């Protein structure tokens, strides 16, 4: 069995999750507190990957990033970046596709915090940044953990978007989900089963750990 697709899959999931965490914290905070008229439109855009077929999203990104179009041509000519059939392209596609899985739990965490916590921090002279990192984020740890795990697990299971943007290039864009598809097409069910079994076991373990932590079961176990 070739381990490269699995290594590439977890590398993609890790990079995507870290980028999503950086993007989602300020975005979720703004969505939880703003009364702007553009909020419904932005929330709709963030949630679109939940209902949109992955191939549709992948197709539009394929068109946008293609060197034969204006944006892709500009990236290629001025920045020397080609996103189609590259790992960087997979990362950008995965960030967009997994965005709601990180934003929604964190936004819910911010929304459920009582405003008195923020007000008390401001009264004590703390800045907005200090309040965010030292007061608010520690109080929404379960939401952060849920967002991180959902985004990571969702990226591991991507297929349509990854196939449209990255294709099937061994060692470069061929992730585990595409390797499973290839092996099934070649009737190598044993290899496909190993890939599937490993992904199943890892994602099950990650999700179980989240439920154990958020439900307080681990604390009860160690008492």
Structural features, described:
The chain has 12 helices and no strands. With 223 residues, it is mainly α. The termini are far apart. The mean pLDDT is 89.
Order of helices and strands: HHHHHHHHHHHH
Query: What level of helicity do the residues show?
Result: over 70%
* Strand proportion: under 5%
| Stretches with pLDDT under 50, minimum 5 residues | none
Distance between the termini: 42 Å
Q: What does the overall shape look like?
A: globular
Radius of gyration: 20 Å
Strand segment tally: 0
**Number of helical runs?**
12
> Helix/strand/pairing class, anyone?
mainly alpha
Roughly what is the average pLDDT, rounded to an integer? Answer: 89
Largest beta-sheet details: none
């Amino acid at each position: 069995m070739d381990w490269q697709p699995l290594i590439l899959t977890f590398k993609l999931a890790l990079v995507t999750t870290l980028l999503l965490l950086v993007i989602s914290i300020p975005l979720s905070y703004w969505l939880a507190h703003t009364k702007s008229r553009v909020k419904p439109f932005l929330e709709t855009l963030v949630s679109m990957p939940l209902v949109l077929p992955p191939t549709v999203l992948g197709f539009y990104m394929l068109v946008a990033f293609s060197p034969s179009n204006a944006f892709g041509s500009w990236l290629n000519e001025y920045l020397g970046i080609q996103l189609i059939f590259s790992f960087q392209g997979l990362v950008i596609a995965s960030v967009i596709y997994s965005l709601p899985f990180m934003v929604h739990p964190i936004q819910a965490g911010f929304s459920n915090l009582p405003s008195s916590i923020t007000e008390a921090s401001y009264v004590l002279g703390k800045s907005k940044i200090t309040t965010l990192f030292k007061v608010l984020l520690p109080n929404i740890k379960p939401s952060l953990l849920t967002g991180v795990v959902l985004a990571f697990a969702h990226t591991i299971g991507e297929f349509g978007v990854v196939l449209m943007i990255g294709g099937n290039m061994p060692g470069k864009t061929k992730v585990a989900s595409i390797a499973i598809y290839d092996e099934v097409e070649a009737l190598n069910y044993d290899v496909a089963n190993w890939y599937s079994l490993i992904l199943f076991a890892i994602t099950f373990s990650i999700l179980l750990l989240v439920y154990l932590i958020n439900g307080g079961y681990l604390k009860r176990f160690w008492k």
